[in-house]
Amino acid sequence: MTSATVERSAFLRSKLGGLPRPFWALWGGTLVNRLGTMVMPFTGVYLTQARGLSVTAAGLVMGLFGAGSLLSQLLAGVLADRIGRRATLSGGMLATAATMLALGYSTSLPAIVASMFVLGLVIDVYRPASNALVADLVSPEERPRAYGLLFWAINLGYAVGMTAGGWLAGLGFVWLFWIDAVSSVIFAVLVWRAVPETRPAVQQSAGGFGVVLRDRLMVGYTLVTLGVALVYSQTMTMLPVAMTKVVGLSPGQFGLAMALNGVLIVIVQPLVSGWLGRRDAPRTFAVGVAVMALGFAMTAFVHDTFGLAVTIAVWTAGEVIQAGIAGTMVAALAPAELRGRYSGLFGFAWSLAAVLAPLLGGPLLAVGTWALWFTIGGVGLVSAAGILLLGPAIRRR
């Protein structure tokens, strides 16, 4: 065996070794599921082109999806603690598959409305269960790397799924629904067969989220997460609008620049996750959020594709820095028997941000690009300061 082969093997062990086999089953299922996630990026196109809804009607229908997603995280958090992580994740994926097909074959407005609401309710049920599973399966020292690898799988799968979805949509939207459904079933079966139930035997008697909401530290961390999520959610709401309508980039130019985000994550994140995981979690998270805030604030000065690519590179660097840390801190704050609920509240912050981001970003963009991006940058910096203030209490926990 050559020295280069030995070095390569040692490198792979350092990046991929030390994690239990059930984690890799969860990782593989997540990758397959994200590879098949083709419907949601094209939902607006499907509703207006294939089903003939007006833009206003499509917006209202997608708003119902958002309402379902708000309830989803809270419900899934309770289920993960009460009936188990494996049952919640697998059940959520099977429900997602069935609802995807129902939406794909719905032709009447009532059926479309009902399917979209239920889809919002079930599509992300897996997230609190998945986060709790990682915390249950992986040692505290390895959690930043494990959460970072899941983040990497999600981004790799989404990038490939987006590319394939755009091509398949031209052949017929029904293909997107079937592929999404099949990938959800594969995820459900893989987890059910290869991942053990990890819910602690001793159960917390308190129902719902009362016990979580009484944890002031977790509530504070959730507010910080909401701020971070409001910043990042602009990538899917106001950033495309601002770049195409105000700056004047074509959709192709915008898509080319945005591809840089996925490329950088896929290349860089596995290389640095181990090193970042050994740093102080609150400080590392704060640095990542501050860098991300800087990147979005710089967007106020973008006038061409190159300028947009520079800002994307900056906020992607911030995203990579804090990606594996967020779930790690939730796992550290949560008692083992309440990890589902704590992860559900964490996910709720992201769902709420997805609803609030366009409601806040739209009026700010109407004032001017500087108003939008400087405000978003300010929200990010406040969030970074917030996690630094919470840092001592997080370390004690």
UniProtKB/TrEMBL annotation:
Coiled coil: none annotated. The chain crosses the membrane at residues 23-47, 53-75, 111-129, 149-169, 175-195, 216-234, 254-272, 284-302, 308-333, 345-364, 370-391. Keywords: Cell membrane, Membrane, Transmembrane, Transmembrane helix, Transport. Residues 22-395 form the Major facilitator superfamily (MFS) profile domain. The keyword Transmembrane applies. It is found in: Cell membrane. It comes from the Bacteria. It is a multi-pass membrane protein. SUPFAM superfamilies: MFS general substrate transporter. PANTHER family: MULTIDRUG RESISTANCE PROTEIN MDTH, RESISTANCE PROTEIN MDTM, PUTATIVE-RELATED-RELATED. This is MDR family MFS transporter. It comes from Nonomuraea helvata.
